[in-house]
Design brief:
Helix content: 10-25%
Number of domains: 1
Number of strands: 4
Strand content: 35-45%
Strand order of the largest sheet: 1-2-3-4
Order of helices and strands: HEEEE
Number of helices: 1
Structural class: alpha+beta
Shape: globular
Largest sheet: 4 strands, antiparallel
Distance between the termini: 23 Å
């Protein structure tokens, strides 16, 4: 399995975030939010990328941080506000 670069992970995360905004699953304010951190973590099925976005203007504190998880080759696993 090939591990992608940080730049590629960033591009994938931004693309998926924009898609979630376009489909109405995320509010439009997320369009301007850039990744706060990117790290390789141990997931349920092995190593995966965890990309974290933070919206400092979010009124709902439970929706302040968006997490996206990708396989090492760059396929989206999940996007959520729980980090799980």
């Amino acid at each position: 399995m090939t591990k992608i670069t940080l730049a590629t992970v960033t591009g994938c995360a931004l693309q998926h975030k924009d898609s979630l905004v376009k489909t109405g699953k995320l509010q439009a304010v997320w369009s301007a939010v850039k990744p706060a951190s990117i790290e390789a973590v141990n997931g349920k099925k092995g190593k995966e990328w965890k990309v974290t976005f933070k919206d400092a203007t979010a009124k709902d504190k439970s929706k302040k941080t968006l997490y996206m998880f990708f396989t090492l080759p760059g396929n989206l696993i999940a996007a959520n506000f729980t980090g799980q």
